[in-house]
Write a structure and sequence with these properties.
The complex is a heterodimer of chains A (about 300) and B (about 270).
Chain A lengths: L1 E10 L2 E11 L4 E5 L6 H8 L7 E6 L4 H9 L2 E4 L11 H11 L4 H14 L15 H12 L6 E5 L7 H16 L3 E6 L2 H7 L2 E6 L2 E6 L1 H8 L3 E6 L5 H8 L5 E4 L4 E5 L2 H10 L6 E6 L2 H9 L6
Parallel strand pairs in A: 3-7, 3-8, 5-6, 6-7
Antiparallel strand pairs in A: 1-2, 1-4, 8-9, 10-12, 10-13, 11-12
Helix pairs in contact in A: 3-4, 8-11
Chain B lengths: L12 H17 L3 H20 L7 E3 L2 E3 L1 H32 L2 H5 L6 H29 L11 H20 L8 H14 L13 H7 L2 H14 L4 H29 L2
The chains are: A alpha/beta (about 300), B mainly alpha (about 270).
GO molecular function, one term (chain A): ATP hydrolysis activity
Subcellular location (chain A): Cell membrane
Protein name (chain A): ABC transporter ATP-binding protein
């Protein structure tokens, strides 16, 4: 579906994407993970065929976006980071008119729009203004709109940012259904749980390069330990205490509010810490997640 | 949910322009009152100046023919109505869609191209100007201000004026960064409206540079074209005006496209 080789993107002197190789196969859910400014959105825009490639090779459905942009876009669904809905049209017309942009005929557009309102669970809002919808509804409408042309490939740029947990679960469920229906998904996200839930395979991007690639499980196995012991001490103490627990795990990560000790046996770490007379305010032993892989690879937490 | 049916064929430029016009039409269906203001303005001018002030003025010569004052002002208002209609959509509305609504970004996620957007929006501006002009022409007919069969060509002439202004104004709008910049549009619109031989003959400017400048401005070309057609005194000046306006429109269209490329396809 997507094949990129040595893909680069520059804006003047600034290089946002510094040569990446990516292969996305039919039917899979593929994720781009990375902190802000890692080059995810630039990459997505190039794939969406609205941003010219600076150098390297990019093929989507085997076509070159530089020459076959409209043909590629005809088979893509794009769900941008911000809800760019048409505020001058009502909810139904947002779907209907958008479908017409694809050259789909009136009757089909009307049927599709009706179906998609159902899918997005906003049928009763069909005649409402877009601005009267809640954040979750707008997001669902944006996603529904991106499906109007029955895309072979759906691009989702941070699909659940800004949604409450309830709305996120509704959305995840819908994305799962699409995946089962054979739609290839490409997702960028800030949320590690989202990536673990949705993605078959993902790449971690940092500073315009790919830092790691694999399934969530593979990445965790390769870049983290089985468990993590989280130790919370008083404000400002973490930096100084790191040295005292360093030898208890494979690695120690200092966060502003806690120490993370990476070890295959988390409970033993906590016991050892207490044996040394240290008194953490709180402790927690958990399994490694993508978040830990992320910290390891990019050296910073996602919050920044 | 129904799955992939057929991949739609790529849109032809004409089809794409139609779809964009459809979008704007749907938006205006519920706001048709806004449409009225642009039409009323030139009609009010015609009544107040053409007919009101016209009572105080004897008829005077236009290209050697005696023309009543109202019949002199009316074609200028016809050109102005096309100008107004085109201006409204291609400046304020385009700016809003480009900067705030991000409407063109949405369209570019579909098979539509920047060329399609340029052509579609300009077509819409052109249509709006044409509707105003057609309505105004009916008013002129009803008031007996049309003196010649040449006047049937006044509508295509008005459409041409709408096209030229729609294209150039949309092009200029792509350089605007804030609403304050629209003062510049008003700054250009007022003198064009007042001094394009709309209310008095161009001879009033004497034979100097000033007259040359006025004759080279686009609205003057439109006014004189409409005036020659509705009064039936057609000269080579009409041909000059047609070529002038066609070139203006095409240049505008090409610039819009390139500017949209530069702004949106980054």
């Amino acid at each position: 579906m997507i094949s990129a080789r040595g893909l680069r993107k520059s804006f003047g002197d600034f290089e946002a994407v510094k040569g990446i190789d990516v292969e996305v196969r039919k039917g899979e859910a593929f994720g781009f993970l990375g902190p802000n400014g890692a080059g995810k959105s630039s990459t997505m825009r190039m794939i969406a065929s609205v941003s010219p490639v600076t150098s390297g090779e990019l093929r989507i459905f085997g076509m070159d976006p530089a020459t076959d942009g409209p043909a590629i876009r005809g088979r893509l669904g794009v769900c941008p980071q911000e809800d760019t809905l048409d505020n001058e049209l009502n909810v139904f017309d947002n779907l209907y008119i958008y479908g017409r942009y694809f050259g789909i005929d009136r009757a089909t557009c009307r049927d599709r729009a009706t179906e998609l309102l159902e899918f997005a669970q906003i049928t009763e809002k069909a005649k409402s203004k877009v601005e009267d919808l809640s954040g979750g509804m707008k997001r669902r409408l944006t996603i529904a709109r991106s499906l109007i042309n029955n895309p072979d490939l759906l691009l989702l740029d941070e699909p659940t940012t800004g949604l409450d947990p309830q709305a996120r679960h509704v959305l995840w469920d819908q994305l799962f259904r699409l995946k089962q229906a054979g739609v290839t998904l490409v997702i960028t996200t800030h949320y590690m749980d989202e990536a673990e839930q949705l993605c078959d395979r993902l790449v971690v991007m940092d500073k315009g390069l790919i830092a790691a690639e694999g399934s969530p499980r593979e990445l965790i196995d390769a870049h983290s330990t089985r468990e993590v012991a989280e130790l919370r001490f008083g404000v400002g103490e973490h930096e100084g205490l790191a040295g005292k627990v360093e030898d208890l795990g494979e690695r120690v990560e200092v966060l502003p509010d806690r120490l993370l000790v990476y070890s295959d046996h988390g409970e033993e770490v906590v016991t050892a810490v207490l044996d040394r007379g240290l008194q953490p305010i709180a402790t927690l032993v958990r399994r490694s997640t993508l978040e830990d892989v992320f910290l390891r690879l990019t050296g910073r937490s996602l919050a920044d | 949910m129904a799955l992939v049916t057929a991949i739609p064929a790529p849109l032809t430029p004409v089809h794409a322009a139609r779809v964009l016009v459809l979008r704007n039409f749907v938006v205006y269906k519920s706001a048709w009152k806004l449409f009225l203001t642009g039409f009323l303005e030139p009609v009010l001018y015609l009544f107040s100046i053409g007919i009101g002030v016209g009572q105080l003025i004897d008829s005077f010569e236009f290209h050697g023919e005696q023309v009543p004052y109202a019949a002199f002002v009316a074609p200028a208002m016809l050109a102005t109505s096309a100008f107004n209609g085109a201006l409204l959509d291609s400046t304020f509305n385009v700016f809003f869609k480009l900067k705030y609504e991000k409407l063109y970004d949405q369209m570019l996620a579909t098979p539509l191209t920047t060329g399609d957007i340029a052509r579609g929006e300009i077509t819409w501006g052109l249509l709006r100007g044409s509707v105003y002009s057609a309505a105004f022409l009916v008013v002129m007919l009803a008031m007996g201000l049309v003196d010649s069969w040449w006047a049937v060509l006044a509508l295509p002439a008005a459409i041409l004026i709408a096209f030229a202004f729609s294209a150039v104004c949309m092009a200029l709008t792509t350089w605007m960064t804030s609403w304050q910049d629209f003062d510049k549009i008003t700054l250009a619109q007022m003198p064009l409206f007042l001094f394009s031989a709309t209310f008095f003959p161009v001879e009033a400017f004497g034979d100097g540079v000033l007259r040359w400048i006025v004759e080279a401005t686009p609205l003057y070309r439109g006014v004189v074209l409409c005036r020659e057609l509705t009064t039936g005194v057609v000269t080579w000046e009409s041909a000059v005006s047609v070529v002038y306006l066609v070139v203006m429109g095409i240049v505008g269209l090409l610039v819009v496209r390139r500017r949209l490329d530069a702004l949106l396809l980054t």
